[in-house]
Each structure stands twice: as C-alpha cells, then as structure tokens.
Inverse folding.
C-alpha cells in the first residue's frame, strides 16, 4: 500500500510503500503511524487517524509498538 509522507531532507511530500504499522503511547494518548523507507535508506513516518490505520492494517488490533531508544 502506498501512502504520502513528508520527506524532511527533500522538503516535500513523497509517495512511498508502507512497510510497517506502529502505535505510540498508551490509553488516551495513543497515536497511530505508518512507516516507510526511501530508496536511499532513510526512514519516513506519517501519523494517521485511528480509523485509517485500522482500515489499512486490515483490522489488525495488535500492531508493533514503537520502542523507545535509550
């Protein structure tokens, strides 16, 4: 599935293939995101509405949680 991401390096929106569906936070502060990788290996993240995330993930309630880097 393709989605629109903002590429900070290029300073414009790009279309990229979604590689992962992730969630950030817990409870009322839960956020949903799509992840992608550019052709040159840079990571892209786009935060989306819960309804869009659920529809794109095929209704999968248990997606990968993003880990905090130490």
């Amino acid at each position: 599935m393709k989605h629109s991401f903002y590429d900070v390096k290029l300073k414009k929106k790009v279309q990229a293939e979604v590689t992962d569906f992730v969630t950030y936070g817990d409870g009322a502060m839960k956020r949903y995101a799509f992840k992608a990788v550019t052709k040159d290996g840079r990571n892209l993240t786009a935060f989306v509405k819960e309804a869009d995330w659920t529809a794109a993930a095929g209704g999968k309630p248990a997606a990968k949680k993003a880990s905090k880097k130490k």
